[in-house]
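ok posting inputs for the 6-O-phosphono-alpha-D-glucopyranose job
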Amino acid sequence: MCGIVGYIGAKPVKKILIDGLRELEYRGYDSAGIAVLQQGGFSLFKAVGKLINLEEKAKEFESNGFSVGIGHTRWATHGKPTELNAHPHLGQNSYVVHNGIIENYQELKAMLTAQGAQFLSQTDTEVIVHLFEHHLKTAASAFEAFRQTLARLEGAYAVLLVNGSVPDTIFFAKHGSPMIIGRNTDNDVLFGSSDAALIGKCNEVIYLEDGHYGYASSDEVALFDAQDREVVLRYVPLSDNKLSAQKEGYRFFMEKEIYEQSTVLADTLMGRLRDRSIYFEEIDPSLFEGINEIKLCACGTSYHAALVASYLFERHAHIRTSVEIASEFRYRDPFLTSDTLFVVISQSGETADTLESLKMAKKSGLKTMVICNVDNSSMVRLADASILTRAGIEKGVASTKAFATQVSVLWMLSLYLGETRKTLPATEIERQIQLLRTLPSTVAVDPATHEQLRRLSKRYLHGHGFFFIGRDVFYPLALEGALKLKEISYLHAEGYPSGEMKHGPIALADPELFTIALLPQHKLYDKTKSNIEELSARDSTICSISPLDFDKADDHIRTRAQDDYMLEFFEMMVVLQLLSMEIAIRLGNDVDMPRNLAKSVTVE
Ligand code: G6P
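and the output
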């Protein structure tokens, strides 16, 4: 997602900023920009697309001596990926770069516009720079104006701001989005939203905490906490290992991506939840006119997200929904009718079977849509409409955060359709929107649960197989849990509907058959419980996952009490991801690059 760099010093500033942004490229972005303040004047360069475009735009720029610079890579959330929407954003004599979201930006924008501020972009970020200049008119100093600005911002942010009246200074703040200050023996000061951007350029850093803000010049760094008390600067050494910096202290990318789900879900929901309705900026409601059926098509983990959607679409929008595995769909001479909306789901947007299925559907005259994590991917370019999932780049081959964002988009889409098709009462839509708002905290990893899973994993390293079982949307979640486990542990695992076990698989039950049972409180609790008891009576080793106690299990992972089964779904998803990962780690496997698998499968 978005990345920030900043620099104060006498070295070639353009190269330092762009090199720093390049280290953050792995997060994904769709535009980039830098602003440099040198010898009293600003230079600004912005470009859509890759950093090479920005380098091309800035190729004439030569730095000359001391300068102050800020840079940003943007992953569009508010407003399309255009040059105008790219950061840095300009006021009269200041520039700002920002990660996160300013939740009250509309109210601030209205106030500032009424006072004559000219907004150029559609972003929430631009209010910061205008608000700063508004306070600058009356504040005792530029720093005081910055402090007053922060006091009015609601939401999450990491911010760097430069102002022409203090040409040697960068103002900075962190509240809910990461920001790091670094220094080196040449007296340079650097900023980065991840330490990956600072490796090799700094030997010491301070990881700012929420509420921290301050100013920096080459002579001085002043840091304050949320209560406006000055904080003693405590630098820590910065390792020079790039890969480990990108993992941000986690053992594997997969682990980092599991922990990141809270942030990427917040990004995915951003701007899409209104009080009483769902809003997709990218969707023209006419897409759904004349549609009586939805056909979802995908591979792997994305196929499991599609299966979840089939429950939600029929339940919320009363629309016939079918799900296709792309490699099967392509060759089974499907009967397609023009009142069907064909929806492909793909993290990469490049999976060969899904892409070819999309082409087939288009050729048959169907309206098409893609739910995808990569803007400008082949599927996004081809489909009539697209919704982006905003998970950022996913490095672990076993998909985690991409799945979480796919399901959240599909859930929102089911409510959107429920509203347009008038199949869900307004109060129910409102209730579910409130549930969606809690997703970022629902998926935040509970350290005690993670520790329990780490300890428990040692009991699940052998046996003749795993069954993951669940009902309703917990059935596709069981499929996904089993897929995660086999992908990275190489143990045999199957997902099964709980109620179907008695039609065959229960013959396998013995102590060496491990059953991972999803037992939500709010969806078919008694039915699922009976199915698990049937397995327990036949001596299968049971690991149950439920907010309620279950005395027939050998191991029990207690989830938090939630208000709704969809929140239980998301919490259990995290449990399954961590369990697979801990088992694979104990088995000594390369969790991020499992044998025989590829992240993006562009062959049939
Ligand atoms: C590969 C990956 C899976 C992924 C599947 C579909 O098999 O290893 O993690 O779910 O492709 O990929 P897509 O990019 O279309 O979601």
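notes: Residues 445-604 form a domain with the Rossmann fold fold (CATH 3.40.50.10490). The longest strand covers residues 94-102.
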